[in-house]
Amino acid sequence: LELWQIMFENINAVSFNQKSSSAIKDQARLQIMLQYIHKNYQNNLTLEDLSHLVSLSKSSVLNLFNEYVRM
Fold first, then answer.
1. CB of 67 closer than 8 Å to CB of 26
2. What is the SS3 assignment for the chain?
3. Residue 6 — pLDDT band, cuts 50, 70, 90?
4. Which residues, including other chains, have CB under 8 Å from residue 48's CB and lie 6 or more apart?
C-alpha cells in the first residue's frame, strides 16, 4: 500500500496532460503495467515481465516510469 501511495504522489500530472498520440500510448502502457503490478505484487515481478507485457524494451519501461511516476 505504501508503494502505491508513493507512486500516486509522484505521478507527473504535467506529462499526463499531453495530448500527443505517443503520450496517449505511453499512458495506456503505464496503466497496463500498474494494473499488472497491482494484481501480481505478491509474486516476484521483473522488469522483463513488464517489458514483455507492453512490448517495450526494459530501458523504455524504465524511461516511462521515470517520466510519469518519477521512480
1. yes
2. CHHHHHHHHHCCHHHHCCCCHHHHHHHHHHHHHHHHHHHHCCCCCCHHHHHHHCCCCHHHHHHHHHHHCCC
3. low
4. 58
Predicted TM-score (pTM) of this structure: 0.71
Residues written for the chain: 71
Tens of pLDDT, residue by residue over 8-50, are: 666 655 455 556 788 888 888 998 998 999 899 899 999 999 9
Helices 21-40 and 58-68, axial angle in degrees (round to 10): 100
Distances (CA, A) of 5 to 2, 11, 46: 5, 10, 21
Residue 20: phi, psi to the nearest 5? -70, 155
